[in-house]
Amino acid sequence: xxxxxxxxxxxxxxxxxxxxxxxxxxxxxxxxxxxxxxxxxxxxxxxxxxxxxxxxxxxxxxxxxxxxxxxxxxxxxxxxxxxxxxxxxxxxxxxxxxxxxxxxxxxxxxxxxxxxxxxxxxxxxxxxxxxxxxxxxxxxxxxxxxxxxxxxxxxxxxxxxxxxxxxxxxxxxxxxxxxxxxxxxxxxxxxxxxxxxxxxxxxxxxxxxxxxxxxxxxxxxxxxxxxxxxxxxxxx
Length: 236
Hints:
- By secondary structure, this protein is mostly helical.
- 85% of the residues lie in helices and 0% in strands.
- The chain has helices at residues 2-20, 23-31, 34-38, 42-59, 61-81, 85-110, 115-126, 128-142, 147-150, 160-173, 177-206, 208-235.
C-alpha cells in the first residue's frame, strides 16, 4: 500500500510538472500563430496519461483501468484550458502597454510622422510583446499592405481592436487618427480603473467565507464548549 501511494505521488508530481512547463509552450510563444496555440501539446497528453495511470494504480483491476481512462480524458481537457504562466504574463504586459502605445502613436502622428514610422518608433520605445506586434504592423504598411491586413497583427490584444478599427477608418475616410488614439488611451485607462475597483470589491466578498471558517473553531471552543461542559456537569 505504501509503495502504491509513493508511486501515485511521483506520477501526479510528474503530471503537474509536465502540464505546467514544457518546450511546446515556448515554441507557441515564438510562433504566435492560432494553429500552434490550438495544437494539442505533447506535455499535456503526457500529464493526462500520468494522472490516469496514477488513478488506475490506486484503484486497481478493471475498474481502475476504466476510471483511469476517464481521469486521463478529463485531465487532458482541463489542462488544455489552463493558461500557462508565460502566456498570461505576455498577455498582461500587452494590455498594460497598450494605453502608452496609443499615446505615443498619437504624439508621433501629430509630429508629422507617417503611420508606419510612428508604429516602428513606438515599437522600439515600448519593446515587449506589444512592440513585436507593432513592428509587424509597421513592416506590413511599408510593404504596401492594406490597413486591414497590417493592423490585424494587434487584434489579439484586448482593447487593440479599437486601435485597428480607428486606423482602418482613418485610412478610408481621412479622419484624424491622433485624436482617436488619445481617446482610446483615455478609455483604456478608465476601463482598467473600473476593472481594478471591481476586482477589489470581489476580493472583499470572496474573503468572507475563509475568515468565517477561521473564526468558527474559536467560536465553538470559546462559546459553545464551556456551555456544553457546564450543562453536562450539572446533569451528571
